[in-house]
Amino acid sequence: MSAAFKKLNPLLHSELRLAIMALLMELEEADFSYIKEKTEATSGNLSIQFDKLAEAGYIRIEKGFAGKKPKTTYSITPTGIEAMQEYVDALKSYLIIPHEQ
Amino acid sequence: MNTNELSPEKSIQIISEMLEKSRKDFEKDSGTPMIIWGAVVTIVSIIIWYVLKATSNPYWNLLWFAIPLVGYPFNYFLYYKKQEKRAKNFLNNAIATIWGCFGIIATLLPIIACTLFHEAMMFLTSWITIILGFASALTGLLMKNHWITMSGFVVAIAGGLVSVFMDYSNIPLLMGCAALITLLLPGIILNLKKK
Q1: Residue A1: predicted pLDDT
Q2: Inter-chain contact B22–A14, Cβ cutoff 8 Å?
Q3: How far is the first Cα of chain A from the last one, in angstroms, to the nearest whole number?
């Protein structure tokens, strides 16, 4: 491997937070139950990770209503997309790509 | 899933897994609206072609309005109602927007034109065939599906050219063939691939 290791963003280098971000990269928006189902995480843990990602400006949390029921939707921000791109670039420096061997 | 630190390999695996999971939700039955609209347009077009040939009564052109009247309820109950509502996908929204625009043009244009000019339906049918091919080509390009893209281009260009020389009484048949090539067949292929 020729390139030096790049530093991995500690906020994204965690199983659940990375899963949330990867999921939101593909979607325009998603609600709590959808993300919970796909990540198979507990509600409490998920809420904590959402707050951390929102504090960093990586995701946007919008509270609204679906009919009479309260509904919270999550979407990735441009800062979040940039952070994910940098994270994936950094990941590549740790992986041995066969044709470079 | 927890918040533990992970290896780079595991990170890549999580990213791929999540992308795959969300894609699967939206790809499932993605050909169904094409099958519904393709079947409705093909059947109605062939019926109109047949009755116009048999009776030469232009009022049978009013049957074109059966397409939205039958298509929208079928699409609602057989597709839209079963769709994942908890998340929105960029690609599906873009495709829905293209076909929404096509639906508005293909519904309003004949209503307005037929109110203003009698027997305008035959001219409009060939124009709508071109727009149908255009919408299909855009859908194929967004979905990165060569079959849908090519069928859209073929229908828009060949359909447009053929309609210039074609006898007006056969234009409904052209519309039926266009719907078969751009909607019904690609829809069936898409659904079979996802099964």
Answers
A1: 46
A2: no
A3: 7
Backbone angle region of B62, left / alpha / beta, with phi > 0 → left and psi within -120 to 50 → alpha? alpha
pLDDT tens digits for range A24-64: 998 889 999 999 999 999 999 999 999 999 999 999 999 98
Q: Do A14 and B18 touch (CB under 8 A)?
A: no
Task: Specify the CATH number for A15-95; select among 3.40.50.300, 3.40.309.10, 1.10.10.10, 2.40.50.140.
Answer: 1.10.10.10
* Distance separating alpha carbons of residues B47 and B41, to the nearest angstrom: 10
Distance separating alpha carbons of residues B46 and B175, to the nearest angstrom = 9
Name residue B77's amino acid: F
What letter does residue B59 receive in the DSSP assignment?
Answer: G
Q: Where are the domains of chain B?
A: 21-194
ipTM: 0.82
Q: Residue A96 has what pLDDT?
A: 65
B-facing residues of A in 57-96 (CB < 8 A) are 87-88, 91, 94-95
Q: What is the C-alpha R_g of chain B?
A: 20
The overall average pLDDT reported for chain B is 87
CB B171 within 8 A of CB B122: yes
